[in-house]
From TrEMBL:
Enzyme kind, highest EC tier: isomerase
Protein name: Triosephosphate isomerase
Family: Belongs to the triosephosphate isomerase family.
InterPro entries given in the database record: Aldolase_TIM, TIM_sf, Triosephosphate_isomerase
Subcellular location: Cytoplasm
Keyword annotations of the record: Cytoplasm, Gluconeogenesis, Glycolysis, Isomerase
Organism: Mycolicibacterium tokaiense
GO term, biological process aspect, one: gluconeogenesis
Amino acid sequence: MERALWIGTSWKMTKTLDAARRYIRGLADYLARTPLPGVAPFVIPSFTAVAAVGDELPSGTQVLLGVQNAHWEDEGAWTGEVSVPQAADAGARIVEIGHSERREHFGETVETTRLKVAAVLRHGLIPLLCIGESDEVKRAGDTSRFILDQAGGALDGLSDDQLGRVLIAYEPIWAIGDKGRAATVEELRAPFADLGREYGDRTAGLLYGGSVNPDNALDLLGIDQVTGLFVGRAAWELPGFQQLLEIAAAHPKAAR
Ligand code: PGA
């Protein structure tokens, strides 16, 4: 099946409103000059910037907007949380769920990821479920069981149609952020073979994330089951994101 290559960035906890607007204006100008067929770009700002970023995007843009988290309830006494309908109201189409930083620091569990995936699907948005093992799990040779448990737990009970709207990002914890080290393609073949067997054609995409940059993007997109990249630092400045979009657009996997 031909489908677009997903290239997305989470800005994590960076950018003022001004910086967010400048980035998105630049991205919109760039895309107006440089059509990128076969690529599905997405941008996931901090909550404070979501509506402002949405306002800067021209109507009909190919850029999908996302949020980095959302609660499973639609509304209520949940101080500090944001619901899926609120995220949708601000313009989000994608909801990131279960990033390892949220699992590690904010108590996200397999059960909360399951509740959040269900809430996102209920409101017609796209869940972007992040999974990935620690260095310890990897060294114990337990990666496959661990990531399949994380995915299976979060996606438990979904119909084929619902699963077909889910994006999965495999992001090994040891490869994320400035304390991480970039994974080699060889290290990623087995986890992606496992994920591909279980979810490959049944979900909207299988993305890789963790120290992605313009130097390794081509090799990462070459892994059989990979249909997109989810990027932090290397896309926080617009030129880095543009380079990644161009690499994807030139890739034979980009649907035309
Ligand atoms: P990184 O972050 O690209 O900065 O390693 C990736 C992620 O956390 O999704």
